[in-house]
Amino acid sequence: MNTSIDIPAELAELKIIAPAGFAVALHVHFTTPAYLFQTYPTKWIEEYGRDGLVMQDPVVAWSFANTGTIAWKALAPSDRAGVLARAAAHGLNHGIGVSLIERDSRSVAFFARTDRAFSPDEVARIEAGVATLHDATDPDQPLGPEAREGLRRLSVAFTHP
């Protein structure tokens, strides 16, 4: 773990850029991330989990098959289960997906706004922020119990404000 990176500040900046919420899954192994930070509305998180939407989400599918960024609207034609429409019902009207692989480890992240699409500058900043978080939580770096507990508390704080 890179302790010189202020993870809470990085997450707070991403929240400003994506005021409707985000989900950042770092170092995903099979389907389980080492760290997960979510700021989506609680009702959406509950519906998404209850109805198993991760298995039908076109943005998730794209993110595990590709790297880079994509606007949610580009995947709307492949959204047979209506996941994006259901997200919009919770105010998640405009979004992007981000996927990266570095050192054989994949991180994926999803960001939303209610009011407008993300600007190119915002997309670039989000992509850089995900890369920073990916590097800061590198599983190949030793992580002491105190740092691990701090990240766990931070994950809980972001997911359950």
Automatic annotation (TrEMBL):
The keyword Cell inner membrane does not apply. Residues 32-125 form the Transcription factor LuxR-like autoinducer-binding domain. The keyword DNA-binding applies. Signal peptide: none annotated. Keywords: DNA-binding, Transcription, Transcription regulation. Gene3D superfamilies: Transcription factor LuxR-like, autoinducer-binding domain (3.30.450.80). GO terms for molecular function: DNA binding. SUPFAM superfamilies: Pheromone-binding domain of LuxR-like quorum-sensing transcription factors. This is Transcriptional regulator. It comes from Rubellimicrobium rubrum.
